[in-house]
Amino acid sequence: MSGTDINQIIDAYLDGTLTKAQGERLNRWVNASPENARAFAKASWLHRQVYDSLHVRDLQELTAGAGDTEPESVLAQLRALEEGAGEGQLVNLTDEVARREAVRRRAARRAQAARQQAFGGSPAAQVMIIPRVAIYAIAAMILFGLLTAVYAGLMSQDKPTQQTAQRPAPRMGAGLPPVVAELIGGNQPVFRDASLSNRVGAPMRQGLLELVSGTARVQFHGGATATFRAPAVIDLRGENRMALIQGAMVADVPEHAYGFTVDTPSMRIIDLGTEFGLTTDAQGSSAVQVFVGEVNAAPYDASGQLGVTTSVRSRRGLAVDGTTFRSETIQADGRAFEDIAPHVALLYRNLVVNGDFEEGQPGRVTGDTFPEVVNVAIPGWEDSGPATVIAYQQAAAFGYPDPARHVLPTDRGNAYYAGMAEGTTYQRIGVADLSSLIDAGQVRYDLSAWLGGFAEQDEHLRLSIRFLDARGRAIGQPALLDPVHVYHRRSESGFLLRERAGDVPAGTRSIRIEIENIGIHTPPYVRDGYADNIALELSVD
Amino acid sequence: MKPMTKATHTRQQQQQQRQDLAVLWTRAQPHVSAFVSSMVLDFHAAEDLIQQVACAVAEQFEAYDPDRPFVPWAIGIARFKVFNYYRSKKRDKHVFDSDAINGIAQAYADLEPELDPRRKALDTCIKKVNGRASQMLELRYIREMKPARIAQKLEMTPNAVSVMLHRIRAALNKCIEHELRCEKAGEP
């Protein structure tokens, strides 16, 4: 292989354009001699040094240009830059914003790392601030607020939509910016700007807002409501438009506020009449989770251009990495927003505590002809008669369902439930936080479990849910899973999956899930009705 | 003189240790960064890894033998971090096997004395780059675009961009060698 060949292959490696075959050749070549490894080290060293040198120079130029300048005039400079740029020239406003934002993020990351090293960790770590990092860190502290403001200001200059075209120009004109929303609640919100009132009904003007502590519930004049959790940096851009630069929020958007738009450093979300949660971290990574309805979400790419719009429906989400701008579909999990929207934490997840019976210690099976087992306390459950949990592997030796021979739950874990006497094992799940959706008839339930029994015996379980009102009285009819009888199992030990779905009746404030043991045996012999992987999930149409 | 308490003595020792570490790390960091970046091509992932190496170096500093060179020791720690990173990203394609990683780590340790003068020379050389080459470097290193994206931007083919980047790097290397020769000869 000639020198030119290998140098080109090394460059292809550094530029991320290496083919698989070239990669194998490069690996072989590096392994062939220490001189080759040394040549590779020199080439890759140059690559990193060029990166560092250019970034330090770039940041120094930015610092020099912005340090004594107001955000508005930086904005004006950037505008002039765009207007002055001829066709075919490299610089345009979008790229410049993206570039400055990329620099800001890198600077912020380095500043954060420097802060962590300076104020936290081991004593030795306190001195680990290095010259290049220090340059970025100091510059970052000067630039962070300024560039955030510039970036946010520039983002609000996006091509006007139907909503934004009609609103007055922000910040630039004389007088105060327009009021676009009002504070309608929250938990002791404190804003960075001490002049902002935190009383209910306080008007909120277009512009940047930093929530330092507490939570704040804001009603936009366009109809959308958003609840924010501190620390959060928010840009209120209009009556139906905002940006979440950092922090967490849940938005509730009624149909008449259709089109409510939220930008983050890595994605844009356009609401189609829904409720969604959104987080943006310090690196600009964002994740949207849809709890009700549907949103359109589009990731930005590294150059600041919007990518392909994706429709994200309820129980799904989209996460975009703020560094690589890669996006991936995620499952909605409202627990991340439990403090600002407790009801979403009840959706799209199994609400049964220890429904797989993996918590706690299984009862040990002993005995010869007639196996015996002790009843055990089952975490998360209460019982009105003895009940136990059995370990699959340990019990199989005594004739219980055997993983090697019988049909068992697919994701069964270690243990399953077995009744021991007449009685009921139960738990109660509070759903009062979902009352408005339940009473509107929008909440559905999905109940499922693996139910089973032993050989030719017909002892079995009845698994049901009962809907209870605020005073604990039953509402409507209980929902019962079809029991698994001996003939369903064809007289073989094992389990079968049972499922049932339906509407949660209006007025429901809690749900009681019950396992009733049906059969003839008495303790210490196990009543051979089994259950595993019990799940109750609520969803919104 | 008031005798020094044990606690004061320990504090002074710790302070001295921190100062030693600061000096050593400041010198070693560019070499460690370069090694990590040669193994992890995503600049941001590399930065995260470098921070991890910095923490590990601080944590393990008591085990460092001051009679031995610091840079190879720190690169040795970085090598383990790279192995761990590769393991955590095992679904991604990795070009180098463990022998190659060890070989490159050793090469970086051996190159240490040469790299500081080279860096100074590079700082001079990079200021001389102008015109389209300067634009190309800005797109590749500041805006972090890959050749295909640069090609779109400059209305070139990706291959032409790769060739141009290759030539710029070759020119930088040539310039560095020239600067080093001048430095050695005492020329300005």
Give a verbal description of the structure.
The complex is a heterodimer of chains A (541) and B (188). With 541 residues, chain A is an alpha+beta fold. In chain A, strands 1, 2, 3, 4, 5, 6, 7, 8, 9, 10, 11, 12 and 13 form a 13-stranded mixed sheet that branches. In chain A, strands 16-19-24-21-22 form a five-stranded antiparallel sheet, with no helix packed on it. Chain A has eight helices and 25 strands. Chain A has helices spanning 3-14, 20-32, 34-66, 71-84, 93-119, 131-155, 392-396, 435-439; strands at residues 179-191, 203-205, 207-220, 225-238, 241-252, 261-263, 267-271, 275-280, 286-292, 294-299, 310-313, 316-320, 327-331, 365-366, 372-373, 382-383, 387-391, 415-419, 423-430, 443-453, 460-468, 474-480, 494-503, 510-518, 529-540. With 188 residues, chain B is an all-alpha fold. In chain B, 31% of the residues are buried. The longest helix of chain B is centred in the first third of the chain and has 34 residues, at 6-39. Classes of the chains: A alpha+beta (541), B mainly alpha (188). The interface between A and B is large, with 63 and 71 residues.
